[in-house]
Amino acid sequence: MIPYLIALIPFLFIFGNPILDFLSGSSSCQVPKIHRIPKPKLNTDLLALKDDDKTYQCERDGYKIHVYSREPLVIYFEGFLSEEERDHLLKISEPLYEPSTITHNGGKEVNRDTSVRDSEVAVVPRDDVVKCIEDRARSVQGWREEVWIERLRVQRYGVGGHYSHHYDWSSAMGGWGRVSSFMVWVDDAKGELEGGGTEFSKLPGKNGKWCKFLDCESQGNGTVFKVAPGNAVYWENFRSDGTGRGYEETWHAGLPVKKGKKIGLNIWSWGRMD
């Protein structure tokens, strides 16, 4: 018996505190918190700041929502854009397209690499219709403090067009970054589009009724949202535990277009991580 007691002493010495913490409901392990820097100066050329002197009128929102995931928060919207809004976006973006680029090092480095991202982008002007879409996206954020909608960007993908897997939060620093994202589908070449879905390879897939919105046949172990004009998917990029950690499940890609043309709308929210 004595040898067993002697052998138990170093075990208690090493693991005694964690065991007591567990039994008492407390923990001495603290998750590192964000080292927060003061709010950076806002770049008004990139942000769609709220119009306090509102002179435009918006139709009542008519979308329907489905909660796909709670951790991370992923919401699917039916009817996020009306047909008139989609037509308007197609019209105003047509003369503005430029080759899409990739940013690195917190936005300090910008280059074009079609092996990673092959598409065209148009930063659309903020007319009344666009401001109504901005307001709709802003309202989804609730009353979060210090969060702003970025300028809306329409993306066009031809055959072979794609965007390889990436995180929207990759350039975050000092407690500030892209806190949430929308992928909104604007057009699918009148139903002739093949491919081009939005894949979340680390987000567990679903079946059943969700196959109305998902490519259940090819999504494998992840999730692939089908292109559906007018609909959208929204997700939160950061955990709300004060650590500033991003959700690994938001690793996503725009899959290659096999036939036709895909046009989507990116809506990003930039601001303070909760």
UniProtKB/TrEMBL annotation:
The record's section on InterPro entries has: P4HA-like, Pro_4_hyd_alph, Pro_4_hyd_alph_FE2OG_OXY
Question: So which residues are the signal peptide here?
Answer: 1-16
UniProt keywords (A-Z) are: Dioxygenase, Iron, Metal-binding, Oxidoreductase, Signal
The cofactors required by this protein are: L-ascorbate
Asked if the keyword Signal belongs to this entry, the reply reads yes
Q: One short Pfam family name for this protein?
A: 2OG-FeII_Oxy_3
Q: GO terms for molecular function, please?
A: iron ion binding; L-ascorbic acid binding; procollagen-proline 4-dioxygenase activity
Q: Which domain of life is it from?
A: Eukaryota
Q: Which residues form the Prolyl 4-hydroxylase alpha subunit domain?
A: 72-270
This protein's record includes keyword S-adenosyl-L-methionine = no
GO CC annotation: endoplasmic reticulum
Q: Which PANTHER family match?
A: PROLYL 4-HYDROXYLASE ALPHA SUBUNIT, TRANSMEMBRANE PROLYL 4-HYDROXYLASE
The protein here is known as: Prolyl 4-hydroxylase alpha subunit domain-containing protein
Q: Which organism is it from?
A: Podospora fimiseda
